[in-house]
Design a protein that fits this description.
Blueprint: H1 8-11, E1 32-33, E2 36-42, E3 52-56, E4 77-83, E5 93-98, E6 101-102, E7 104-109, E8 112-118, E9 124-127, E10 136-143, E11 170-171, E12 175-180, E13 187-192, E14 197-202, E15 207-211, E16 215-219, E17 223-226, E18 242-248, E19 252-257, E20 262-267, E21 270-275, E22 278-279, E23 282-287, H2 302-312, E24 318-321, H3 328-337, E25 340-344, H4 353-363, H5 375-392, E26 398-405, H6 413-423, E27 428-433, E28 444-448, E29 463-469, H7 494-512, E30 517-523, H8 547-571
Parallel strand pairs: 23-24, 23-30, 24-25, 25-26, 26-27, 28-29, 29-30
Antiparallel strand pairs: 1-12, 2-3, 2-4, 4-10, 5-9, 5-12, 6-11, 7-8, 7-10, 13-14, 14-17, 15-16, 15-18, 18-19, 20-21, 21-22
Helix pairs in contact: 2-3, 7-8
């Protein structure tokens, strides 16, 4: 029987949740947070009465929503909130933003239907100006049907268990308003070139870009390239951010950028992933982003910094955000605190253990052009991937995109990778993480949880161990499901877990660096429901590994990489 767990942040919540500004890279001085209590109903048609109350931005399945249950698949979820605009807020246009709503959302203001949005992991915005009155009624209708697997759904399933988790529906990120002038900056594009950045406005607008400590630069035809004479490079040990302001004739937004380079260079026999011109070992963890009281939604925005800092204290420099797109606050904290992110696309389509695991593991079939042939499913995946990249690509912490994971939903991967590069060619791309490997990818990406790790690069692509480990230790009193535990190798005590993890790194990972290994992603940051293979418990109250055990490992990994480079340079 599942137990009630609560994180320290969830235990101390009060007032309106998630008050932090939702879009850290595009701040304006106009902002109204609409989180908090809304009227709520479940009805096939517009309800005559709203008989429940729900706390936004938490999904109805979560405890923090005040409801704590999953409704019938496909049942329309109705949200209602009344609001007044404060004096002086309204300029020429008023925009409504919804961080994410799973899977489809329709917006009504004062009875007018204004938009329909599909995709449960993407933010969207609608201009509500023409529908506004002195007093306003906002209604949002959400529908979610996990039986329709064309939509990206990640780890959500109807019958949770093992590596599959409780489903989420409806609004699960911040709802907010902002006021803008008639001609306004709809978006910023920040492209990192290694020693410079190009900043562009959408639509193209003239104006100025003022960068702290660098000065003012003219924005001509909506674009400017900034190349500091001595750039201060961003890295996990020194996450330097350049703060800047874009000002046009009518509009003004605040943002930031970082300068860092990503390259693949051959060093000796093996190609290496390089950060800021030097081979770098990406020492990381799988990060599912689930919370016991909020599910997909962290109880508080500060929860992200707590997790990031806890992992940095153990010596890790990378998080692989696994099959989920987070609110932008997560990526901002990674930018600010210095944590590299490997970002997965969110899987859709059906998953078959035989087709997607047994078959590729057994025969390493390489031709995936005829897999998952439903065209609607393919198009929906592409749309979700494009939404994720366009929403997140300004964040310097993101250094690596994963397109397909373990054959799940995978199709025509070589061609998909070529298309993906049109979205963003400035980062590393892992087209097929785990198996069903194709030709068009930047890395040789492998998963291994069982048996002795055999890791040696082929000299063609950087070798990446994108999933491994997963050893378990059940911390009594902090277990979601005491009746079932899921992971890859049980340890009876804290000491046994520390020794098992340390031995895995000492005996397999560190020696593999000189044989071409460039990255290793251990499973995982936290326990999640039945999974007890986290480095911290699901309620974030117990860190299972000791810094005294893990910090020497992180030093050994970087030392091994530096030794390999020094040896090559000496030979040269």
């Amino acid at each position: 029987m599942p137990q009630t767990l609560t994180t320290p942040r969830g235990e101390t919540l009060s007032g309106t949740p998630w008050q932090v500004y939702p879009r850290p890279q595009m701040r304006r001085d106009s902002y109204i947070n609409l989180n908090g209590e809304w009227d709520f109903a479940v009805s096939s048609g517009k309800p005559e009465t709203f008989d429940m109350r729900i706390t936004v931005p938490f999904c109805p399945e979560s405890r923090l929503s005040g409801i704590g249950r999953h409704f019938e698949e496909g049942a329309p979820l109705w949200y209602r909130r009344r609001f007044l605009l404060p004096e002086g807020f309204r300029r020429e246009r008023v925009l409504l933003h919804i961080g994410a709503a799973d899977q489809t959302a329709e917006v009504f203001v004062n009875g007018q239907h204004l938009c329909r949005h599909e995709g449960g992991y993407a933010s969207f915005c609608v201009d509500i100006t023409e529908a506004l009155a002195e007093e306003n009624e906002l209604v949002i209708r959400c529908t979610d049907d996990l039986h329709d697997q064309a939509f990206p759904y990640g780890k959500q399933v109807m019958n949770r268990g093992g590596m599959w988790y409780t489903p989420v529906s409806g609004i699960w990120q911040t709802v907010w308003l902002e006021s803008v002038p008639g001609t306004y900056i709809e978006n910023l594009n920040i492209e990192n070139h290694g020693t410079s950045v190009t900043i562009s406005t959408v639509p193209p607008l003239d104006g100025t870009v003022s960068v702290e400590q660098l000065g003012q630069f003219p924005l001509e035809h909506g674009q400017v390239t900034i190349a500091p004479e001595n750039p201060h490079f961003w890295c996990p040990d020194d996450p330097y951010l350049y703060r800047f302001t874009v000002e046009t004739a009518q509009d003004k937004v605040e943002s930031y950028f970082a300068i860092r380079s990503l390259e693949i260079k051959k060093v000796g026999e093996y190609p290496r992933l390089c950060l800021n011109g030097k081979p770098y070992f990406f020492h990381g963890l799988l990060d599912q982003g689930y919370w016991p009281e909020g599910l997909l939604t962290a109880p508080a925005p500060e929860s992200y910094a707590d997790d990031i800092l806890a992992m940095k204290c153990l010596g890790f420099n990378t998080l692989r955000k696994h099959i989920k797109v987070e609110p932008e606050e997560f990526y901002y904290q990674c930018d600010r605190l210095g944590m590299i992110v490997w970002q997965d696309m969110v899987n859709n389509s059906s998953y078959s253990y035989f087709r997607d695991t047994v078959l590729p593991t057994g025969i390493q079939k390489r031709n995936d052009r005829r897999l998952h042939r439903d065209e609607r499913s393919r198009n929906t995946f592409r749309q979700g991937a494009a939404d994720a990249v366009n929403q997140l690509k300004n964040h310097p912490c993101i250094c690596y995109w994963t397109i397909f994971n373990e054959g799940w939903g995978q199709f025509d991967s070589d061609r998909v990778c070529g298309w993906f590069r049109t979205l963003d060619a400035t980062r590393f791309i892992d087209t097929t993480s785990g198996w069903f490997r194709g030709k068009n990818t930047d890395v040789d990406s492998r998963h291994q949880y069982f048996g002795k790790l055999r890791l040696e690069g082929d000299g063609l692509r950087p070798l990446v161990l994108s999933e491994f480990g997963g050893k378990t230790w059940r911390v009594e009193g902090h277990i979601f499901n005491p009746d079932k535990a899921y992971g890859y190798g049980a340890c009876p005590t804290r000491e046994a877990l520390n020794e098992a993890v340390a031995a895995l790194y000492r005996e397999s990972i560190v020696p593999a660096v000189e044989k071409g290994l460039c990255a290793a992603i251990y499973t995982q940051v936290s326990d999640v429901e039945d999974e007890v293979n986290g480095l911290i418990t699901y309620d974030r109250r117990v860190v299972k590994l000791d810094a005294d055990t893990m910090l020497p490992i992180s030093r050994a990994l970087q030392d091994a990489m530096e030794k390999t480079v020094a040896s090559f340079e000496k030979m040269g």
